[in-house]
Write a structure and sequence with these properties.
The structure is a single chain. The N and C termini lie far apart (49 Å). α3 (83-98) links the parallel β2 and β3. By secondary structure, this protein is α/β, with parallel strands linked by helices. The strands form 3 sheets. The chain has a 7-stranded mixed beta sheet with strand order 1-15-14-7-4-2-3. A 4-stranded mixed beta sheet has the order 8-5-6-13, with helices on both faces. It has helices spanning 36-43, 58-70, 83-98, 111-119, 163-172, 203-212, 257-265, and strands at residues 47-51, 76-79, 105-108, 133-139, 142-144, 150-151, 173-181, 185-186, 189-198, 217-221, 243-254, 270-273, 275-276, 281-287, 290-295. The protein is built from 7 helices and 15 strands.
Amino acid sequence: MASLAIPSSMPPTKSSPLPPLMATASPKHWSSASASTSRRRKLNPLRISALSLPDSSPLLKAAHHTVDTFIKSGMVVGLGSGQASTMAIQYLGQQLRTGAFKDIVGVPMSVVSANEAAKEEIPLHDFQDNSRIDFAFDDADVIEEGTLTAIIGRRSSQGDESLFQEKSILNAAENLVFMISKNQYKGGLEGSIPVLVNSLNWLEPAEEIDDLFLGDAEVWRRPSIGYADPLGGDFPFVTREGHNVLDVIFTSPILSLEKVAESLDKIDGVVDHGVISKFPCTVVIASESGLYIVDNVSKNPVKGT
């Protein structure tokens, strides 16, 4: 088993973008994006529509469209984290105050979304394992074109935030919408996937992940403050559930997020990760030319269009 080694150059902290990643050929099934996009499109037909709205910021349009289109009175709604989600929470609060919606209950995915919902006087419930979630909206860091598989949790974390809770609420939701910018919807994804491991025994799964993706990715334990290094620096980040976050930083495009997720799920000590594949799922893509709505409903032969 290979030991984690400190690379010759220091990657940036989480507040900086990752360095450009080169598309290198690889024998492993989880990297090298050659010929992958067309294959995914054939296997996963999607329904796509375009929508133009009056002038406003693209993400604000996405937030308003999501609330107006998918939320109905009486729903239990999962409230996501991120810029678009904050706009959606604010707009949902406005609609509740005007009487457009009634009997809405929010289930926040983070302390930030809970605070924002409280400001908007949205009634809140804590998430439990058996909670019913009619609908959820969230930001995503990036979404794989053709499959709608998303990566969440790349954003700089705070001690009171929880990737574990965010993903649990998304998985529990009967219907899900991600709101993203156009440049976040692509094939041949690059960058990092966050992986949750137990903080008391983090090194063994970290080394196993390092071996699994040897030559394709580097494994870094996320720090709470200061500079990152493979061991997490002097102050490794610990989630409120007691987990460390390993950032698996791919150095070549990822062929299939689904296969990466399957590989991570088989590793002892991995609690969860930031890859989520959900059906049904809709993605509202914000661009300067309007909104593009993509869903995976057509993958279901009963509900397909």
